[in-house]
Specification:
Elements (H helix, E strand, L loop, with lengths): L1 H16 L23 E3 L5 E3 L12 H16 L3 E7 L2 H4 L15 H17 L3 E2 L3 H4 L18 H17 L11 E10 L3 H7 L10 E9 L25 E4 L2 H4 L5 H9 L3 E3 L9 H7 L2 H5 L4 E7 L10 H11 L2 E3 L2 E6 L4 E5 L9 E6 L7 E8 L4 E7 L9 E5 L8 E8 L8 E6 L1
Parallel strand pairs: 3-4, 3-9, 7-8, 7-9
Antiparallel strand pairs: 1-2, 5-6, 10-18, 11-12, 12-17, 13-16, 13-18, 14-15, 14-17
């Protein structure tokens, strides 16, 4: 597999270097799509378009460390009553291979390798005790009449969303934890056709003469059959925290695949799992935006769901930012934390929290929970001082695509061998009454 990856990378580089030679007849008068600086793409058959660096890519790193951490996360969640299902979304190219252009091979795409990479990821996770859902088998098709992905966009259609939800819902109903829930009946009805906003289509259109296939799909509405109020929001608030969540529910975290309204993924998931769904997905949040926002929230700690469905496209590398992101999720899931820090000094105006760490022993793999006490806090910088005068800095910055929780679980690698004397924490916002620090075990 490693040798295949190297060869594919070399093939991709070679193809890009000769991109002007990739001349093919376009049904829409498109030219130089592969040279698009924003979104290099290729035009396939029957109006399907594919991104070169996402849909045709087959290097999807998934290290042994990542698999190990995912196993620990699933274990930590299950110990507190939540069963996690990880849902890697396969690429558009591997689900609709018959619509790829011949040029796809010049960019290194190999269907057999792409399938093997996806199946390998699912198998390794399942072997480590993570319930990984295989969507490739369900979504793969040669039928372009009602495809699982839009022609001129990379997201799934309502058909793709329903197929995925049916697969996931069926798995949830087979899990041991489902025996303890009270199923709820939902009904989904078509409400017409709806045009979705597509950044990909807009970007590609500038390189084409004729109008590209519109990103239009049947829209649906899912309601609880027993509910007298059909307008009741049974799926939580995708723009806020999961307030009012109950234990017999599914918490959905993920990307725009889950957050987009037109495909109705969360609605279909509620229908096929027969459970309410609290949708905390974040468009543009990539692999960690939604799940980090949710697991570090006070609402999650106070009221955990029975099931956690984590949707993530396979090209979103879980090891992209090192091990820190998954370590934070594991610590938040365990919530095995004890307060530390003597005689704290707090300056709310400056957002400064200082505490004496004399006598505090840090063991390997521990994490420091810096709690601003203010959900609006997104940024924190920690300066540790050791008894021999050295200083060490750690910092976390939540982007705009994260929801603020004011709670940061910071790994303490290399600090466990030191005698610490003090920590100074700079929050962008803090509550003088509620700010605190704790040491957590992972």
């Amino acid at each position: 597999m490693k040798n295949n990856t190297l060869l594919l990378g070399a093939a991709l580089a070679a193809a890009l270097s000769v991109s002007p030679a990739l001349a093919a007849n376009s049904a829409f008068g498109c030219k130089h799509l592969e040279d698009n600086p924003t979104l290099p793409s290729v035009e396939g058959r029957d109006g399907f378009f594919f991104r070169i660096f996402a849909d045709l890519r087959m290097q999807h790193p998934f290290t042994d460390d990542t698999v190990e951490q995912m196993g620990k996360l699933a274990e930590a969640l299950k110990a507190r009553g939540t069963t996690m299902l990880y849902v890697p979304i396969p690429t558009k190219s591997v689900t609709l291979p018959t619509f790829l252009p011949d040029e796809a091979k010049l960019f290194g795409f190999d269907e057999d390798v792409a399938v093997s990479v996806y199946e390998d990821q699912v198998a390794r996770l399942n072997a480590k005790g993570v319930i990984a859902v295989d969507l490739l088998s369900a979504l793969r098709t040669d039928n372009g009449g009602d495809p699982p992905f839009f022609r001129s966009d990379f997201h799934w259609t309502s058909r793709g969303a329903e197929t995925a939800a049916q697969t996931i819902g069926g798995m949830i109903k087979q899990l041991p934890a489902y025996a303890d829930v009270t199923p709820v009946t939902y009904e989904t009805k078509a409400t017409g056709a709806e045009l979705a906003v597509s950044g990909m289509r807009r970007t590609l259109q500038a390189f084409c003469v004729l109008s590209l296939p519109p990103v239009i799909s049947t829209s649906y509405e899912t309601v609880e059959v027993a509910s007298a109020d059909a307008s009741l929001d049974i799926f939580g608030d995708s723009g806020g925290e999961a307030e009012g969540a109950t234990s017999d529910e599914i918490a959905l975290v993920g990307t725009s695949f889950s957050d987009a309204l037109v495909p109705n993924f969360s609605g279909f998931l509620a229908q096929y799992a027969s459970l309410p769904v609290a949708n905390m997905a974040i468009t543009g949040g990539n692999q960690f935006g939604a799940i980090t926002s949710y697991l570090t929230s006070r609402e999650f700690q106070a009221d955990r769901p029975k099931f956690l469905v984590w949707e993530n496209p396979i090209y979103n590398n879980l090891a992209q930012f090192g091990t820190g992101s998954l370590t934070e999720l594991i610590a938040a899931a365990r919530d095995d934390c004890q307060p530390v820090g003597n005689t704290p000094v707090i300056d709310k105006a400056k957002g400064l929290y200082q505490a004496d760490l004399t006598g505090t022993s840090i063991t390997p793999n521990q994490v420091l929970l810096a709690d601003a006490g203010d959900n609006g806090s997104r940024d924190v910088v920690l300066n540790f001082e050791s008894t021999d005068g050295r200083t060490f800095t750690r910092e976390v910055h939540r982007g705009d695509r994260f929801r603020g929780t004011g709670r940061f679980f910071i790994p303490l690698e290399s600090l466990d061998s030191l005698e610490l004397s003090k920590v100074s924490i700079q929050f962008d916002r803090l509550s003088a009454e509620k700010a605190a620090i704790s040491l957590c075990n992972t």
